[in-house]
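Researcher: Next sequence.
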Amino acid sequence: MKQMSFADAEYAGKRKQTRRERFLIEMDQVVPWKGLIALIEPYYPKGEGGRPAYPLLAMLRVHLMQNWFGYSDPAMEESLYETTILRQFAGLHLDRIPDETTILNFRRLLAHSTPSGHPA
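Model: Next structure:
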């Protein structure tokens, strides 16, 4: 288990649950994660021969948060650094956050892939 950062420790000690936090808890319960992962996985790069790929579930969660909260690619990257609840929802840690280009590439992968293999 990773050591908790100061930001994570401070966050864990807070008392009030925010609307954003309640929303993410609800989305965690209602989004069909396994089904979505099964649809995307055949198209998701494995990270072979380069830097390791981010976990598909983490990238999907980042993508959905970006849409839910209306973030641009650079704003999503910055928000992951700044906001503990967003990192926790995505299952990411401060030592490895996807940059804006990685976020853009994932969005493009989703936009240009369909289950039939043809461009959308």
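Model: The chain has a mean pLDDT of 87. The CA atoms of residues 9 and 94 lie 13 Å apart.
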